Amino acid sequence: MRLTPFFRILAVLTLLAAAAGGPVAPAAAQSAAYFGARPLAGAGDFGDPFMVEDLTTSGSPESSEPSGFVLLGSAAYFYGETPATGRELYRTTGFLTSTAQLADIYPGGENGVNQDFNGPSLVEFDGRLYFTGRTAEQGEELWATDGTLTGTVLVRDVATGTSASQPEDFIEFNSELYFTADDGVHGDELWKTDGTPGGTGLADEIDPGIFGAGIDEMVEFSSRLWFNASANHGDELWTYDTGSGATEFKDIYTGGSNSSYPEQFTVAGGRLFFVADTAATGRELWVTDGVDNTATHTFMVRDIYTGTSDSYIYDLVAAGGSVFFSAYDGVTGDELWKSDGTLTGTVRVADINPGPNSSGPSEMTAYSGALYYAADDGVHGQALWRTTVTTTELVADLNPTGYASIGNLHVHDGQFYFSATDGVYGRELWVYDGLTVTRLTDLNPGAADAAPYAFFTPSAAPKLMFFGANNGVNGYELYRLSTQTSTVISLVKNIAPDAVGSEIDELTGAGANHVYFAIGDDATGWEPGVSDGTPAGTQRLGDFVVGTDGSDPEYFAGRGDGRALFELDLSGLGNGEPAFSDGTPGGTLLLRDVYTGTNGSYPDPFVPLGGLSVFFAMDGVHGEELWRTDGTPGGTLLARDIHTGTIGSHGGWATRLGGLVIFGADDGVHGDELWASDGTAQGTRMISDLDSGAYQNSSPYDLVTVGSRVFYVAYDLEGNDALYFTDGLTATLALDPDDTGLTSLDQLTPSASGVFFGDYGGGGVYNIWWTDGYTYTQVSNLGANAEPIYLYEAVALGDQLFFRYCDLTNGCELWQAGPHTGVGLVRDIYPGLPSSDPTDLTVVGDSLVFAAASPTGGRELWVSDGTLAGTEQLTDLEAGAAHSNPSELAVSGNYLFFLAYTESAGQELWAMVVPQKLYVPLVTR
Prior knowledge:
By secondary structure, the protein is mainly β.
């Protein structure tokens, strides 16, 4: 009986909860429990804001004061401060890895970065971030980072020695990064860089001498850089292009060295607006179309406060082809104005506080076809207002008894956020969705201010918002908020309960519902871990190298009974030795120092063989040879010295066939040929010598087990690769390319009754074939103009091969091929040319499970039985179009383990109960 969607979900959740040892809390509840956030009633679907990390963990309310957020790749970078390191550069993803200092540029408590409060402190250019770094040796100079410690470097010491060039006003222009700096010779002038020391130099010297031009407020407009600079006529309007260099565009305040001090450059409606000063008008609004400096093209828009007085223009913001700003006309006070660049189009929008009083509009932000801002009408105090094409109106009086302190308006995920106080609670985080205004949380309890600021939404994670705030305990620290909810399937355990997730790698099923993995953190390094699908049974197996280096476990191999072998490095030098675990810390041990001392034996691969496991290792005496272990130090022994002496047989490509392990090895007499072993010296023998002689090698590779045979590729007498199979006693030729017309054989993939393999056919097209050892069939023939098919991530379910294939119609999607069905698309999961990009293809019972992306479901787990109707989304851990990015799928007993991330727990280990037939979709769309 096929269950309805509701009962499918209920049934699976019940199984998962039982397997995990109890019910699983909803994501919002987990957030509150793990991170101490205090969600308010009526918060709706908003994720609870919580602290990402307290950078100053002294226990006192020291503040790291995060600021200057900018995105590079999938991480956000910012400045943070601790008493021990001073102000330095930090990195966070908010959920995948720990928030951490990227580099201590000025070691100790001194500040290693310099913040430009008049412009961007961190700017992305050509795949790196550029900023002003500070050291004792070079002073404040130009630095760059690629997001790694080793990639955080000084670009150039512009003012050589300990003098500071103080680079700032960064702006990308014509494929180079421009900035201002003082090299101690030319003064404060215009510089540029291509990111290399040799490509960093003076762009132009505007005012020769040691004082320089004092350049400020650079903006790109009309294919030129525009800025104010001081030369012969005082501080005036200048431009720069790569052809003609720097040129004074207009002397606005005429007469000698008087200065107009142009500022607040804002591009709107194909014009550049700015504020400038003259003797006749004071500081007023100007505009240029960039054509020339004549009165037709560059002029004062309007003398808002007539006469010589300033109109005190500030907060220019572009919206709808015009600029909006606050200005004072001497009659109606400080009110909201707008300009389209003409005299008649420059008007006061509204006299919000009637008469000579000022409404003081500020924090102007364009949102959903309107302009939102804070203003005081003289009745409600400072409140939230908006202006549309036809109306100006009060949106919300947040603090009926006083001043709302509205600030930091920021549009995020279709809504805008800001800080404000309602008179009961201090300045906290608020949101407006176009209909209602809601206070989200009380981060700093009661009337105290959390004072959220520096809101930042990474383009790579548009549902995630970072900001700084003060909860009254930790000082000003880094916070995040998610605007999506999560549906929990079964989080095994929040191993790193700090919302940034755990570093887990190499998930390997070992049977008996056990999965082994490497787990890393900053305190212990990488160490082995295990899970049986329950929180209590999910743990590190030990700290084998005390300190931060770790034992770096890898090459896990499950034995099928819950136990596993793997490589462990106790030397700290990257030299691994064989280790064993029964799934408990006490039962996890280094089996033997095979290559004694600090050398490594590099055991690999571990192949279970009855009560034994066999592997190849190097001991420094016999070379690389075949070893065996029963899981005890005393039972870890050399199985046979196949190539006597120190050279070794260099065995490899091992696979199990019944009570034997089949592999390739060189005994020094017959060359590299096919061997078999039962784990004993007497039971280790060569199966065949296909190419006789000590220096003639058939070099068997791509060994795969299919039923009672092992298929492999080896070189024949003519030196061509041919397909063979063995039953452990003799070798049989299955396919000779000379007889079939095939040119090459590789990428053997086992199926139920044969193997798939690849071959480069005519026209350079990579085709897929299948054989049972006696007959062969071409299963793909897409034509000479088709994209190649490769089998690197292919798996077989029965005798059907599933693989990722890309074309110019469907993008990269899930395809299948079979000896009797041909080749075809399973389902265009992400319709059209965009790709679902299926990865981690894993056979689970009678179904195929894989990770894929869809436009409505994000990147989640999918399941397929090979049919269009039977290919559906299996999980939706991050609701809607957000991604949980599942990976590292591993089957063990009744469980499917995988890694995934949610906003509440970061990247962690998940598990799903696997029925005999998995195809029971959890989500229907």
